[in-house]
Specification:
Length: about 375
């Protein structure tokens, strides 16, 4: 999974990036501190995988991973060349989701490019710049399809569809709100449009605002916008998360407990992204390796096998499955087998979150 981090300059993007990747991206109190995209790959926290590694003591433990891309802050007029962020939008076109960081706190010592925080206005600025960037790409797609149509009339519908989308974008509307049938929607998805991607609004608060969300009018505004759009909102104190990320594991657990939290911001962000994208993990296990694999909900066993290797998918015979909850309750795979909980599933089996799977195949 890959997520792109966007937002106005100085809203906490790089601080959040530092917190979730612990990569030390530059973060300072002036616009355009980030002038090159920062990319970090982080392990997806998974207590189930940790437990399997304890049981099997494998040579290798491989978690699922999330790649985060932090680009320069976008400003009003970025699509017309203002600021630096627009030149880096190409870096997040191939992401699965967008994390839109919104400042939800007052601090006269932290510069705001629009003078004062206003989440609704700030969100509108970024969304409009993404829409305008998409409009430019759609116009290029129309030009390309129009040239192709001269030699092949099958491109006529593509020209018609993207011309209608261009009008929708030009009116300031996101591509995800464009009404079309499933076949046309599939065609639109081939264009990597930014405003087709699901969004997580990371409402960046100060420590007081984080612990008093009901009183935080800024956060409530962002939550309302996210709900209306059908997107997700995640309250987070990026500075606090950055401090937590620098602690040793035991100290981190104590700090989270003092704050009344059971999960770090990374844990919550990953879960939020998984929910938004409809993702789950299945597990493979053994002395050589214990590993978590990310798939979409509804994936059938042969397709899940294909995540491991195309040969396993091609020669799929069956999946030998043990639900994580059953293994945890029994204490071991052997004990679960004795109770008849280890089962064989065929090609139509839909993999469930936490399934422990051994694939049988023949090529």
């Amino acid at each position: 999974m890959k997520a792109g981090i966007v937002g106005l300059p100085n809203v906490g993007k790089s601080t959040l990036y530092n917190a979730i990747t612990n990569a030390g991206a530059e973060s300072a109190n002036y616009p355009f501190c980030t002038i090159e995209p920062n990319t970090g790959v982080v392990a997806v926290p998974d207590a189930r995988l940790d437990k399997l590694a304890e049981l099997y003591e494998p040579l290798k433990k491989t978690p699922a991973v999330v790649e985060f891309v932090d680009i320069a802050g976008l400003v009003r007029g970025a699509s017309k060349g203002e600021g630096l962020g627009n030149k880096f939008l190409a870096n997040i076109r191939e992401t699965d989701a967008i994390i839109h960081v919104v400042r939800c706190f007052d601090d006269e010592n932290v510069i705001h490019v629009e003078s004062t925080p206003d989440p609704a206005r700030d969100i509108e600025i970024i969304n409009l710049e993404l829409v305008m960037a998409d409009l430019e790409m759609v116009q290029r797609r129309i030009e390309k399809a129009s040239r192709a149509m001269k030699g092949d009339k099958k491109y006529a519908h593509e020209v018609e569809l993207f011309t209608a989308l261009a009008k929708h974008l030009d009116a300031g509307h996101a591509a995800r709100t464009f009404d079309c049938d499933p076949d046309d929607a599939a065609l639109l998805r081939t264009s990597d449009l930014l405003t087709l991607k699901p969004v997580i609004y990371a409402a960046n608060t100060d420590e007081y605002g984080f612990t008093h969300l009901q009183e935080n009018a800024y956060y409530q505004t962002v939550a309302g916008i996210a709900k209306a759009e059908g997107n997700q909102v995640l309250p987070i104190c990026a500075k606090l998360e950055e401090d937590i990320a620098g602690l040793e594991e035991e100290e981190r657990a104590l700090f989270l407990d003092e704050l009344g939290l059971t999960e770090s911001g990374l844990d919550r962000l990953v879960q939020c992204a998984y929910d938004l994208l409809g993702l789950i993990s299945f597990l493979t296990y053994g002395k050589d390796e214990c590993r978590a694999w990310t798939i979409r909900k509804g994936t059938k066993a042969p397709d899940a096998a294909g995540k491991i290797h195309s040969d396993i998918q091609r020669g799929f015979i069956r999946a030998e499955v043990l639900a994580w909850a059953d293994m945890e309750r029994c204490g071991s795979v052997a004990a679960a087998k004795e109770k008849g909980l280890y089962r064989a599933e065929g090609k139509d089996y839909i993999v469930q979150d936490g399934d422990m799977i051994y694939f049988r195949f023949n090529v």
